[in-house]
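FIELD: query
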Amino acid sequence: MKPKAFALINNPRLNKGTAFTYAERTEYGLHGLLPPKISTLAEQVDWALTDMRGKAEPIDRYRFMAALQKRNERMYYRALIDHIEELMPIVYTPTVGQACQEFANHFRETNGCYISIEQQGNVETLLSNWLDPEIRLIVVTDGERILGLGDLGVSGMGIPIGKLALYCACAGINPAQCMPVTLDVGTDNLRFRQDLRYQGRREPRVRGPEYFAFIEEFITAVKNKFPLALLQFEDFATPNAVALLDKYRDRLLCFNDDIQGTAAVALSGFYAATRITQTKLSDMRFLFAGAGSAATGIASLLVVAMQQEGLSYAEACARCFCCDSKGLITRSRDELTVHAAPFAADLPPMTLEAAIAHIKPNALIGATARGGTFTQAIIEMMASFNTHPIIFALSNPTSKAECTAEAAYTFTQGKAIFASGSPFAPVTINGVTKVPGQGNNAYIFPGLGLGALQGEITRITDDLLITAAKTLAESVSAKQIAQGCLYPPLTEIRQVSLQIAVAVAQTAARVGLTQKVIGKSFAQDVAAAMYDPRY
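FIELD: result
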Protein backbone atom coordinates (compact mmCIF):
# COMPACT_ATOMS: atom_id res chain seq x y z
CA MET A 1 0.00 0.00 0.00
CA LYS A 2 1.36 3.45 -0.95
CA PRO A 3 2.08 5.77 1.99
CA LYS A 4 -0.49 8.31 0.77
CA ALA A 5 -3.16 5.63 0.45
CA PHE A 6 -2.30 4.23 3.86
CA ALA A 7 -2.50 7.69 5.42
CA LEU A 8 -5.91 8.36 3.89
CA ILE A 9 -7.53 5.08 4.85
CA ASN A 10 -6.14 5.12 8.39
CA ASN A 11 -6.79 8.77 9.22
CA PRO A 12 -10.35 9.06 10.55
CA ARG A 13 -10.49 12.76 9.64
CA LEU A 14 -9.56 12.06 6.00
CA ASN A 15 -10.99 8.59 5.46
CA LYS A 16 -14.09 8.33 3.28
CA GLY A 17 -14.13 4.53 2.98
CA THR A 18 -16.09 3.38 -0.04
CA ALA A 19 -17.13 6.98 -0.74
CA PHE A 20 -13.78 7.80 -2.35
CA THR A 21 -14.59 8.67 -5.98
CA TYR A 22 -13.08 6.91 -8.98
CA ALA A 23 -10.83 9.91 -9.60
CA GLU A 24 -9.69 9.97 -5.96
CA ARG A 25 -8.96 6.27 -6.03
CA THR A 26 -6.82 6.79 -9.11
CA GLU A 27 -5.00 9.82 -7.70
CA TYR A 28 -4.25 8.30 -4.31
CA GLY A 29 -3.61 4.71 -5.35
CA LEU A 30 -6.74 3.30 -3.72
CA HIS A 31 -7.92 1.02 -6.53
CA GLY A 32 -7.91 -2.54 -5.33
CA LEU A 33 -7.81 -1.46 -1.70
CA LEU A 34 -11.57 -0.80 -1.58
CA PRO A 35 -14.58 -2.66 -2.93
CA PRO A 36 -15.50 -1.38 -6.42
CA LYS A 37 -18.81 0.21 -5.41
CA ILE A 38 -18.67 3.96 -4.83
CA SER A 39 -21.03 4.89 -2.02
CA THR A 40 -22.62 8.13 -0.92
CA LEU A 41 -22.29 9.43 2.63
CA ALA A 42 -26.04 8.94 3.12
CA GLU A 43 -25.72 5.29 2.12
CA GLN A 44 -22.80 4.79 4.48
CA VAL A 45 -24.71 6.33 7.38
CA ASP A 46 -27.74 4.17 6.65
CA TRP A 47 -25.66 1.00 6.53
CA ALA A 48 -23.79 1.91 9.71
CA LEU A 49 -26.99 2.59 11.64
CA THR A 50 -28.55 -0.62 10.41
CA ASP A 51 -25.52 -2.47 11.73
CA MET A 52 -25.61 -0.60 15.04
CA ARG A 53 -29.32 -1.20 15.54
CA GLY A 54 -28.72 -4.91 15.18
CA LYS A 55 -26.82 -4.86 18.48
CA ALA A 56 -29.17 -5.60 21.36
CA GLU A 57 -27.38 -3.84 24.21
CA PRO A 58 -26.80 -0.06 24.42
CA ILE A 59 -23.19 -0.60 25.49
CA ASP A 60 -22.50 -2.57 22.30
CA ARG A 61 -24.04 0.26 20.30
CA TYR A 62 -21.80 2.70 22.17
CA ARG A 63 -18.72 0.69 21.24
CA PHE A 64 -19.86 0.49 17.62
CA MET A 65 -20.18 4.28 17.46
CA ALA A 66 -16.82 4.77 19.20
CA ALA A 67 -15.16 2.53 16.61
CA LEU A 68 -16.88 4.44 13.81
CA GLN A 69 -15.54 7.72 15.20
CA LYS A 70 -12.01 6.30 15.07
CA ARG A 71 -12.51 4.98 11.55
CA ASN A 72 -14.44 7.70 9.69
CA GLU A 73 -15.01 10.94 11.60
CA ARG A 74 -17.28 12.61 9.07
CA MET A 75 -19.56 9.60 8.83
CA TYR A 76 -19.74 9.47 12.63
CA TYR A 77 -20.76 13.11 12.95
CA ARG A 78 -23.15 12.97 10.00
CA ALA A 79 -24.94 10.08 11.74
CA LEU A 80 -24.93 11.85 15.11
CA ILE A 81 -26.25 15.14 13.71
CA ASP A 82 -28.98 13.57 11.59
CA HIS A 83 -30.08 11.06 14.25
CA ILE A 84 -29.36 12.98 17.44
CA GLU A 85 -32.46 11.82 19.34
CA GLU A 86 -31.57 8.17 18.79
CA LEU A 87 -27.82 8.47 19.25
CA MET A 88 -27.31 10.96 22.09
CA PRO A 89 -28.37 8.40 24.74
CA ILE A 90 -25.93 5.98 23.11
CA VAL A 91 -22.83 8.17 22.77
CA TYR A 92 -23.48 10.04 26.03
CA THR A 93 -25.82 9.64 29.00
CA PRO A 94 -26.93 7.21 30.11
CA THR A 95 -24.77 4.67 28.22
CA VAL A 96 -21.48 6.51 28.69
CA GLY A 97 -21.67 5.73 32.42
CA GLN A 98 -21.41 2.00 31.78
CA ALA A 99 -18.72 2.62 29.18
CA CYS A 100 -16.60 4.44 31.76
CA GLN A 101 -17.14 1.74 34.36
CA GLU A 102 -15.98 -0.90 31.85
CA PHE A 103 -13.30 1.28 30.24
CA ALA A 104 -10.37 -0.88 31.36
CA ASN A 105 -11.99 -4.06 30.07
CA HIS A 106 -12.48 -2.73 26.56
CA PHE A 107 -9.60 -0.29 26.03
CA ARG A 108 -8.24 -0.78 22.51
CA GLU A 109 -6.79 2.51 21.28
CA THR A 110 -6.28 6.01 22.58
CA ASN A 111 -8.76 8.76 21.88
CA GLY A 112 -7.72 11.48 24.30
CA CYS A 113 -4.82 13.17 26.08
CA TYR A 114 -3.76 11.58 29.37
CA ILE A 115 -1.64 13.71 31.69
CA SER A 116 -0.28 11.93 34.74
CA ILE A 117 0.95 13.68 37.85
CA GLU A 118 4.04 11.53 37.37
CA GLN A 119 4.80 13.85 34.45
CA GLN A 120 4.65 16.96 36.63
CA GLY A 121 7.10 19.50 35.26
CA ASN A 122 6.51 18.23 31.72
CA VAL A 123 2.82 19.01 31.14
CA GLU A 124 3.26 21.53 28.32
CA THR A 125 5.37 19.00 26.39
CA LEU A 126 2.59 16.42 26.75
CA LEU A 127 0.06 18.90 25.36
CA SER A 128 2.44 19.54 22.45
CA ASN A 129 2.29 15.85 21.54
CA TRP A 130 -1.37 16.24 20.54
CA LEU A 131 -1.88 15.85 16.79
CA ASP A 132 -3.99 18.97 16.19
CA PRO A 133 -2.13 22.25 16.85
CA GLU A 134 -5.04 24.73 16.75
CA ILE A 135 -7.01 23.69 19.82
CA ARG A 136 -9.90 25.99 20.80
CA LEU A 137 -11.87 23.73 23.14
CA ILE A 138 -10.66 21.46 25.95
CA VAL A 139 -12.81 19.32 28.24
CA VAL A 140 -10.84 18.10 31.24
CA THR A 141 -11.64 15.76 34.14
CA ASP A 142 -9.70 14.19 36.97
CA GLY A 143 -12.23 11.35 37.08
CA GLU A 144 -13.17 11.70 40.74
CA ARG A 145 -16.90 12.21 40.37
CA ILE A 146 -18.03 10.68 37.10
CA LEU A 147 -21.78 11.27 36.71
CA GLY A 148 -23.33 9.70 39.81
CA LEU A 149 -20.88 6.79 39.72
CA GLY A 150 -18.05 8.18 41.82
CA ASP A 151 -14.29 7.86 41.40
CA LEU A 152 -13.46 6.14 38.10
CA GLY A 153 -9.98 7.61 37.66
CA VAL A 154 -8.71 7.61 34.08
CA SER A 155 -11.66 5.42 33.11
CA GLY A 156 -13.64 8.64 33.19
CA MET A 157 -12.08 9.62 29.83
CA GLY A 158 -15.37 8.70 28.17
CA ILE A 159 -16.88 11.88 29.61
CA PRO A 160 -14.57 14.43 27.91
CA ILE A 161 -14.77 12.43 24.69
CA GLY A 162 -18.56 12.36 24.85
CA LYS A 163 -18.91 16.04 25.77
CA LEU A 164 -16.75 17.09 22.83
CA ALA A 165 -18.74 14.87 20.47
CA LEU A 166 -21.84 16.81 21.56
CA TYR A 167 -20.07 20.14 21.06
CA CYS A 168 -19.34 19.10 17.48
CA ALA A 169 -22.74 17.61 16.71
CA CYS A 170 -24.95 20.09 18.59
CA ALA A 171 -23.09 23.34 17.94
CA GLY A 172 -20.83 22.69 14.98
CA ILE A 173 -17.49 23.00 16.75
CA ASN A 174 -14.79 21.60 14.46
CA PRO A 175 -13.45 18.29 15.83
CA ALA A 176 -9.95 19.34 14.79
CA GLN A 177 -10.15 22.10 17.41
CA CYS A 178 -11.14 19.81 20.30
CA MET A 179 -9.05 18.01 22.93
CA PRO A 180 -10.36 15.62 25.61
CA VAL A 181 -8.05 15.52 28.64
CA THR A 182 -7.90 13.32 31.72
CA LEU A 183 -5.63 14.28 34.58
CA ASP A 184 -4.39 11.15 36.35
CA VAL A 185 -3.75 11.84 40.03
CA GLY A 186 -4.54 8.29 41.13
CA THR A 187 -7.83 6.86 42.33
CA ASP A 188 -9.43 5.98 45.64
CA ASN A 189 -11.43 3.26 43.89
CA LEU A 190 -9.83 0.20 45.49
CA ARG A 191 -11.38 -2.17 42.94
CA PHE A 192 -9.70 -0.28 40.12
CA ARG A 193 -6.36 -0.15 41.90
CA GLN A 194 -6.45 -3.93 42.23
CA ASP A 195 -7.47 -4.47 38.59
CA LEU A 196 -4.41 -5.20 36.44
CA ARG A 197 -6.32 -3.93 33.39
CA TYR A 198 -6.90 -0.50 34.90
CA GLN A 199 -5.09 2.00 32.69
CA GLY A 200 -4.13 4.64 35.29
CA ARG A 201 -1.97 5.02 38.38
CA ARG A 202 -2.76 2.36 40.97
CA GLU A 203 -2.16 4.77 43.82
CA PRO A 204 -4.48 6.69 46.16
CA ARG A 205 -5.49 10.11 44.92
CA VAL A 206 -3.00 12.90 45.39
CA ARG A 207 -4.60 15.72 47.37
CA GLY A 208 -3.74 19.02 48.97
CA PRO A 209 -0.94 21.34 47.82
CA GLU A 210 0.59 18.76 45.46
CA TYR A 211 -2.75 18.33 43.65
CA PHE A 212 -3.32 22.06 43.24
CA ALA A 213 0.27 22.60 42.09
CA PHE A 214 -0.32 20.00 39.36
CA ILE A 215 -3.54 21.73 38.30
CA GLU A 216 -1.73 25.06 38.27
CA GLU A 217 0.91 23.66 35.92
CA PHE A 218 -1.81 22.28 33.66
CA ILE A 219 -3.67 25.61 33.54
CA THR A 220 -0.44 27.49 32.81
CA ALA A 221 0.44 25.04 30.05
CA VAL A 222 -3.01 25.44 28.47
CA LYS A 223 -2.70 29.23 28.54
CA ASN A 224 0.76 29.08 26.96
CA LYS A 225 0.03 26.42 24.38
CA PHE A 226 -3.61 27.22 23.49
CA PRO A 227 -4.24 30.85 24.52
CA LEU A 228 -7.53 31.09 22.60
CA ALA A 229 -9.02 27.88 24.03
CA LEU A 230 -12.13 27.51 26.16
CA LEU A 231 -11.47 25.11 29.05
CA GLN A 232 -14.39 23.14 30.48
CA PHE A 233 -13.95 21.49 33.89
CA GLU A 234 -15.93 18.25 34.06
CA ASP A 235 -16.78 15.79 36.85
CA PHE A 236 -14.40 17.02 39.54
CA ALA A 237 -15.48 16.29 43.13
CA THR A 238 -17.45 19.17 44.64
CA PRO A 239 -14.76 20.76 46.88
CA ASN A 240 -12.23 20.79 44.04
CA ALA A 241 -14.81 21.80 41.43
CA VAL A 242 -15.82 24.86 43.45
CA ALA A 243 -12.26 25.79 44.36
CA LEU A 244 -10.92 25.48 40.81
CA LEU A 245 -13.76 27.49 39.29
CA ASP A 246 -13.31 30.24 41.88
CA LYS A 247 -9.56 30.32 41.30
CA TYR A 248 -9.46 30.27 37.51
CA ARG A 249 -12.71 31.78 36.22
CA ASP A 250 -11.05 35.21 35.89
CA ARG A 251 -7.66 33.95 34.72
CA LEU A 252 -8.70 32.22 31.52
CA LEU A 253 -11.80 31.46 29.49
CA CYS A 254 -13.27 28.54 31.41
CA PHE A 255 -16.39 27.19 33.05
CA ASN A 256 -17.55 24.17 35.01
CA ASP A 257 -20.38 22.31 33.32
CA ASP A 258 -21.46 20.45 36.47
CA ILE A 259 -21.88 23.74 38.32
CA GLN A 260 -22.71 26.31 35.65
CA GLY A 261 -24.04 24.20 32.78
CA THR A 262 -26.36 22.25 35.06
CA ALA A 263 -27.44 25.51 36.69
CA ALA A 264 -28.28 27.13 33.36
CA VAL A 265 -30.24 24.18 31.97
CA ALA A 266 -32.19 23.84 35.24
CA LEU A 267 -32.86 27.59 35.32
CA SER A 268 -34.14 27.35 31.76
CA GLY A 269 -36.52 24.62 32.89
CA PHE A 270 -37.79 26.86 35.68
CA TYR A 271 -38.32 29.74 33.25
CA ALA A 272 -40.27 27.41 30.97
CA ALA A 273 -42.27 26.08 33.93
CA THR A 274 -43.42 29.61 34.80
CA ARG A 275 -45.31 29.58 31.51
CA ILE A 276 -47.47 26.85 33.07
CA THR A 277 -47.62 28.05 36.68
CA GLN A 278 -47.89 31.76 35.82
CA THR A 279 -45.67 32.42 38.85
CA LYS A 280 -42.45 34.43 38.83
CA LEU A 281 -39.27 32.75 40.06
CA SER A 282 -39.01 35.37 42.79
CA ASP A 283 -42.37 34.24 44.20
CA MET A 284 -41.36 30.57 44.40
CA ARG A 285 -39.59 28.38 46.98
CA PHE A 286 -37.01 25.83 45.84
CA LEU A 287 -35.89 22.76 47.80
CA PHE A 288 -32.83 20.84 46.67
CA ALA A 289 -32.27 17.21 47.52
CA GLY A 290 -28.50 17.22 47.38
CA ALA A 291 -26.01 19.91 48.32
CA GLY A 292 -23.09 19.21 46.00
CA SER A 293 -21.74 21.32 43.16
CA ALA A 294 -24.78 20.73 40.94
CA ALA A 295 -27.42 21.65 43.54
CA THR A 296 -25.61 24.67 44.94
CA GLY A 297 -24.66 25.78 41.44
CA ILE A 298 -28.33 25.81 40.44
CA ALA A 299 -29.28 27.61 43.65
CA SER A 300 -26.56 30.23 43.17
CA LEU A 301 -27.68 31.02 39.63
CA LEU A 302 -31.31 31.08 40.76
CA VAL A 303 -30.36 33.70 43.33
CA VAL A 304 -28.89 35.93 40.62
CA ALA A 305 -31.98 35.40 38.44
CA MET A 306 -34.29 36.30 41.33
CA GLN A 307 -32.21 39.39 42.06
CA GLN A 308 -32.84 40.43 38.46
CA GLU A 309 -36.56 40.19 39.29
CA GLY A 310 -36.14 42.58 42.21
CA LEU A 311 -35.22 40.55 45.29
CA SER A 312 -32.22 41.33 47.44
CA TYR A 313 -29.44 38.76 47.74
CA ALA A 314 -30.63 37.75 51.23
CA GLU A 315 -34.26 37.48 50.10
CA ALA A 316 -33.30 35.32 47.13
CA CYS A 317 -31.12 33.00 49.23
CA ALA A 318 -33.99 32.60 51.71
CA ARG A 319 -36.10 31.06 48.93
CA CYS A 320 -33.59 28.25 48.34
CA PHE A 321 -33.20 25.30 50.74
CA CYS A 322 -30.85 22.32 50.56
CA CYS A 323 -30.94 18.84 52.08
CA ASP A 324 -27.98 16.50 52.13
CA SER A 325 -27.58 13.00 53.55
CA LYS A 326 -28.00 14.43 57.07
CA GLY A 327 -31.22 16.26 56.26
CA LEU A 328 -31.99 19.95 55.93
CA ILE A 329 -28.91 22.17 56.00
CA THR A 330 -29.44 24.65 58.82
CA ARG A 331 -27.50 27.47 60.40
CA SER A 332 -27.15 25.44 63.59
CA ARG A 333 -24.78 22.94 61.95
CA ASP A 334 -21.30 22.79 63.37
CA GLU A 335 -19.76 22.74 59.89
CA LEU A 336 -21.09 24.35 56.73
CA THR A 337 -19.36 24.09 53.37
CA VAL A 338 -18.67 27.39 51.66
CA HIS A 339 -20.91 26.59 48.69
CA ALA A 340 -23.88 25.46 50.84
CA ALA A 341 -23.64 28.10 53.58
CA PRO A 342 -25.70 30.79 51.78
CA PHE A 343 -28.68 28.42 51.72
CA ALA A 344 -28.55 27.27 55.34
CA ALA A 345 -32.04 27.66 56.81
CA ASP A 346 -32.91 29.30 60.09
CA LEU A 347 -34.88 26.19 61.02
CA PRO A 348 -34.35 23.16 63.26
CA PRO A 349 -32.80 20.04 61.69
CA MET A 350 -35.27 17.80 59.85
CA THR A 351 -35.44 15.07 57.22
CA LEU A 352 -36.09 15.71 53.53
CA GLU A 353 -39.72 14.61 53.88
CA ALA A 354 -40.23 16.80 56.95
CA ALA A 355 -38.60 19.73 55.16
CA ILE A 356 -41.01 19.37 52.23
CA ALA A 357 -43.96 19.34 54.62
CA HIS A 358 -42.69 22.42 56.49
CA ILE A 359 -41.34 24.55 53.62
CA LYS A 360 -43.98 23.59 51.04
CA PRO A 361 -41.67 24.22 48.09
CA ASN A 362 -43.00 24.99 44.63
CA ALA A 363 -40.08 23.09 43.11
CA LEU A 364 -38.23 19.97 44.28
CA ILE A 365 -34.89 19.41 42.58
CA GLY A 366 -32.97 16.16 42.85
CA ALA A 367 -29.18 16.09 42.61
CA THR A 368 -28.45 13.24 45.02
CA ALA A 369 -27.12 10.49 42.71
CA ARG A 370 -29.43 8.15 44.68
CA GLY A 371 -32.14 6.50 42.66
CA GLY A 372 -35.65 6.52 44.10
CA THR A 373 -35.06 9.35 46.58
CA PHE A 374 -38.40 10.90 45.60
CA THR A 375 -40.81 8.32 46.98
CA GLN A 376 -44.52 8.08 46.31
CA ALA A 377 -45.18 9.83 49.64
CA ILE A 378 -42.88 12.71 48.73
CA ILE A 379 -44.34 13.15 45.26
CA GLU A 380 -47.92 13.02 46.56
CA MET A 381 -47.04 15.56 49.25
CA MET A 382 -45.70 17.95 46.59
CA ALA A 383 -49.01 17.64 44.75
CA SER A 384 -51.03 18.28 47.91
CA PHE A 385 -50.03 21.96 48.07
CA ASN A 386 -49.12 22.72 44.43
CA THR A 387 -51.50 22.81 41.50
CA HIS A 388 -48.51 22.01 39.30
CA PRO A 389 -45.61 20.70 41.43
CA ILE A 390 -42.25 21.16 39.75
CA ILE A 391 -40.19 17.98 40.14
CA PHE A 392 -36.74 17.76 38.60
CA ALA A 393 -34.91 14.41 38.94
CA LEU A 394 -31.56 15.47 37.53
CA SER A 395 -29.13 12.74 38.59
CA ASN A 396 -27.41 10.62 35.93
CA PRO A 397 -27.35 7.90 34.73
CA THR A 398 -30.97 6.68 34.65
CA SER A 399 -30.47 4.30 37.57
CA LYS A 400 -29.54 7.30 39.75
CA ALA A 401 -32.61 9.40 38.89
CA GLU A 402 -34.53 10.47 42.02
CA CYS A 403 -37.76 9.26 40.40
CA THR A 404 -39.03 8.24 37.00
CA ALA A 405 -41.30 10.30 34.77
CA GLU A 406 -44.00 7.69 35.24
CA ALA A 407 -43.82 8.03 39.04
CA ALA A 408 -43.93 11.84 38.90
CA TYR A 409 -46.97 11.90 36.64
CA THR A 410 -48.78 8.94 38.20
CA PHE A 411 -48.50 10.08 41.83
CA THR A 412 -49.62 13.63 40.95
CA GLN A 413 -52.46 12.57 38.63
CA GLY A 414 -50.64 14.18 35.73
CA LYS A 415 -50.20 17.57 37.44
CA ALA A 416 -46.41 17.45 37.79
CA ILE A 417 -44.06 19.60 35.73
CA PHE A 418 -41.26 17.11 35.33
CA ALA A 419 -37.73 17.14 33.97
CA SER A 420 -34.86 14.70 34.34
CA GLY A 421 -31.18 14.36 33.61
CA SER A 422 -31.57 11.11 31.67
CA PRO A 423 -34.23 10.52 29.01
CA PHE A 424 -37.63 9.04 29.84
CA ALA A 425 -40.37 8.00 27.41
CA PRO A 426 -43.71 9.87 27.21
CA VAL A 427 -46.31 8.85 29.78
CA THR A 428 -50.07 8.70 29.22
CA ILE A 429 -52.07 9.54 32.34
CA ASN A 430 -55.84 10.00 32.43
CA GLY A 431 -55.90 9.89 28.65
CA VAL A 432 -53.39 12.72 28.32
CA THR A 433 -49.86 12.14 27.02
CA LYS A 434 -47.11 13.93 28.90
CA VAL A 435 -43.71 14.39 27.26
CA PRO A 436 -41.01 14.65 29.95
CA GLY A 437 -38.24 17.12 29.29
CA GLN A 438 -34.66 15.99 29.57
CA GLY A 439 -32.71 18.73 31.33
CA ASN A 440 -29.60 17.73 29.43
CA ASN A 441 -26.65 20.10 29.71
CA ALA A 442 -26.22 19.58 25.96
CA TYR A 443 -28.93 22.19 25.54
CA ILE A 444 -26.61 24.78 27.10
CA PHE A 445 -22.88 24.07 26.89
CA PRO A 446 -22.55 23.63 23.10
CA GLY A 447 -24.26 26.95 22.33
CA LEU A 448 -22.43 28.69 25.16
CA GLY A 449 -19.11 27.37 23.86
CA LEU A 450 -19.95 28.32 20.28
CA GLY A 451 -20.80 31.86 21.33
CA ALA A 452 -17.65 32.12 23.46
CA LEU A 453 -15.37 31.00 20.63
CA GLN A 454 -17.03 32.83 17.75
CA GLY A 455 -17.55 35.97 19.82
CA GLU A 456 -14.06 35.79 21.32
CA ILE A 457 -15.54 36.16 24.79
CA THR A 458 -13.03 36.69 27.56
CA ARG A 459 -14.98 35.43 30.58
CA ILE A 460 -18.09 33.35 31.33
CA THR A 461 -20.29 35.26 33.79
CA ASP A 462 -23.62 34.58 35.48
CA ASP A 463 -25.28 37.08 33.13
CA LEU A 464 -24.17 35.00 30.15
CA LEU A 465 -25.53 31.82 31.76
CA ILE A 466 -28.87 33.51 32.45
CA THR A 467 -28.98 34.74 28.85
CA ALA A 468 -28.40 31.17 27.66
CA ALA A 469 -31.13 29.87 29.99
CA LYS A 470 -33.68 32.44 28.86
CA THR A 471 -32.88 31.86 25.19
CA LEU A 472 -33.34 28.12 25.62
CA ALA A 473 -36.64 28.58 27.47
CA GLU A 474 -37.93 30.90 24.76
CA SER A 475 -37.19 28.26 22.12
CA VAL A 476 -39.83 25.91 23.59
CA SER A 477 -43.03 26.14 21.57
CA ALA A 478 -46.49 26.64 23.08
CA LYS A 479 -47.44 23.16 21.87
CA GLN A 480 -44.47 21.61 23.68
CA ILE A 481 -45.31 23.53 26.86
CA ALA A 482 -48.90 22.24 26.63
CA GLN A 483 -47.51 18.68 26.63
CA GLY A 484 -45.52 19.44 29.77
CA CYS A 485 -42.18 19.49 27.97
CA LEU A 486 -39.82 22.20 29.18
CA TYR A 487 -37.15 21.77 26.52
CA PRO A 488 -37.26 21.74 22.71
CA PRO A 489 -36.80 18.45 20.83
CA LEU A 490 -33.22 17.39 20.26
CA THR A 491 -33.83 17.57 16.52
CA GLU A 492 -33.78 21.38 16.92
CA ILE A 493 -30.63 21.52 19.03
CA ARG A 494 -28.26 22.92 16.38
CA GLN A 495 -30.61 25.82 15.70
CA VAL A 496 -31.11 26.34 19.44
CA SER A 497 -27.34 26.28 19.99
CA LEU A 498 -26.95 28.93 17.28
CA GLN A 499 -29.57 31.12 18.98
CA ILE A 500 -27.83 30.72 22.34
CA ALA A 501 -24.43 31.50 20.81
CA VAL A 502 -25.66 34.71 19.25
CA ALA A 503 -27.55 35.85 22.38
CA VAL A 504 -24.59 35.09 24.65
CA ALA A 505 -22.13 36.92 22.42
CA GLN A 506 -24.44 39.94 22.17
CA THR A 507 -24.81 40.06 25.95
CA ALA A 508 -21.05 39.76 26.39
CA ALA A 509 -20.45 42.55 23.87
CA ARG A 510 -22.77 44.91 25.74
CA VAL A 511 -20.67 44.59 28.90
CA GLY A 512 -17.28 44.63 27.18
CA LEU A 513 -16.44 40.92 27.41
CA THR A 514 -15.68 40.30 23.72
CA GLN A 515 -12.50 40.88 21.76
CA LYS A 516 -14.33 41.36 18.48
CA VAL A 517 -17.19 43.55 17.30
CA ILE A 518 -20.49 41.66 17.22
CA GLY A 519 -22.05 43.12 14.11
CA LYS A 520 -25.37 42.69 12.32
CA SER A 521 -24.08 39.72 10.32
CA PHE A 522 -22.82 37.84 13.39
CA ALA A 523 -25.60 35.21 13.33
CA GLN A 524 -24.97 34.48 9.65
CA ASP A 525 -21.22 34.36 10.24
CA VAL A 526 -21.60 31.89 13.11
CA ALA A 527 -23.98 29.69 11.10
CA ALA A 528 -21.52 29.64 8.20
CA ALA A 529 -18.66 28.66 10.55
CA MET A 530 -20.47 25.68 12.09
CA TYR A 531 -18.94 22.29 11.27
CA ASP A 532 -21.18 20.40 8.85
CA PRO A 533 -19.56 17.06 7.94
CA ARG A 534 -19.88 16.14 4.27
CA TYR A 535 -17.68 14.70 1.55
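FIELD: remark
The chain has a mean pLDDT of 95.
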